[in-house]
Write a structure and sequence with these properties.
By secondary structure, the protein is α+β, with helices and mostly antiparallel strands. It has helices spanning about 25-50, 55-100, 110, 130-165, 165-170, 305-320; strands spanning about 5-10, 15-20, 185, 190, 200, 205, 215, 220-225, 235-240, 245-255, 260-265, 270, 280-290, 290-295. The protein has six helices and 14 strands. Strand 4 (about 190) and strand 5 form a beta hairpin.
Length: about 325
């Protein structure tokens, strides 16, 4: 931007005389104007960004808050998953451990372990509504899970004491898997693969190769060894205390065993096969209690992890077809 002409009044000549600037002064003047303009524009830009977007510190804090929010959401999902697993454990506790030992079930109301009353987490109200709600939910869920775990620990302690007082009975209860294979079909109404109609399936079908070992699931005496209709070769064990177990579609019996032989839990009593009316080699396994069929899934607790039990349960509920 060139310097504008300035004038001074010459009294002698009675006229205005223009002031002449040197080149160096012209350059300094232009630079000063540009620098001043840049400073003003930069200041206005900073004011705008600070007002509309935020300062660098505010931007960093906002990014940190967003990360924490995402982490809280992830924690929420993990807590929901953990709560589902606790529910599965509680159901297993009632349906298997406590039922087998004759202990009263713990009611859902008792397991909820709620506290009720006024808002215990109002200290989070200082945050935004969405953040406060998430923090309150997380804190409440963590507290509730801690109480549920405490109740479950007390239940396990009661079960342990009951087991110690009834060790003889516990050794006779059919409480392990009859083979090493995975579950293929569950208890209840199932489609028969050969007869092509739906009928009661009174046991579980396990994967088993021809000749795979079959184990007694509890102490007892062999009540019957031989053939029985569509089940082919079978073994029935009387465990006492009202329990019987049946193993079907066998290819051979355990060496030296006969009706009346004593067996112990984990002892090999036969070999798997596909005798009888069967779609292929597998092991069919049943349990009766006081003469009535019961779901053997409820008795797979002595050698089955919680994860394996949940997998078996899912297979049992989703597969509508049996192998025999």
């Amino acid at each position: 931007m060139p310097l504008k002409n300035h004038y001074y009044y010459d009294e002698e000549s009675c006229e205005f005389i223009p002031i002449e600037y040197k080149r160096r002064e012209q350059v300094i003047y232009n630079l000063s104007i540009w620098i001043l303009t840049g400073v003003v524009l930069a200041g206005l830009g900073i004011i705008f960004l600070s007002t509309r977007i935020g300062s660098p510190a505010e931007l960093a804090l906002k990014a940190e808050n967003e990360t924490l929010q995402e982490q809280l959401e992830s924690t929420k999902q993990a807590l929901v998953s953990l709560d589902v697993k606790m529910e599965e454990l509680a159901n297993r506790d009632n349906e298997i451990y406590r039922a087998v030992l004759g202990l009263d079930s713990i009611t859902p109301e008792e397991r909820k372990a709620g506290t009720g009353g006024a808002d215990e987490y109002d200290e989070f109200d200082i945050y935004s509504e969405s953040t406060a709600d998430l923090l309150k939910w997380t804190a409440a869920k963590v507290d509730n899970l801690e109480r549920k775990i405490g109740i479950q620990n007390l239940s396990f302690e009661e079960i342990r004491n009951e087991y110690n007082n009834n060790k003889e009975q516990m050794s006779h209860i059919p409480a392990i898997k009859p083979g090493s294979g995975i579950l293929l079909s569950g208890f209840g109404m199932r489609d028969h693969p050969i007869l092509k109609y739906r009928r009661p399936h009174n046991g579980l079908d396990f994967r088993a190769d021809m000749g795979a070992p079959v184990y007694a699931t509890g102490d007892g005496k062999i009540k019957y060894m031989g053939r029985q209709g569509t089940l082919g070769r079978i073994v029935i064990i009387d465990h006492g205390f009202g329990y019987e177990s049946l193993y079907a579609h066998l290819s051979a019996y355990g060496e030296g065993l006969k009706t009346g032989s004593k067996v112990t839990r984990g002892m090999q009593i036969a070999k798997a096969g596909d005798s009888g009316l069967s779609e292929g080699p597998h092991l069919h396994y049943e349990i009766k209690f006081n003469g009535k069929y019961v779901d053997p899934m409820h008795f797979l607790f002595a050698d089955t992890s919680p994860e394996e039990y949940l997998m078996f349960k899912q297979i049992s509920e989703s597969n509508s077809k049996s192998l025999d």
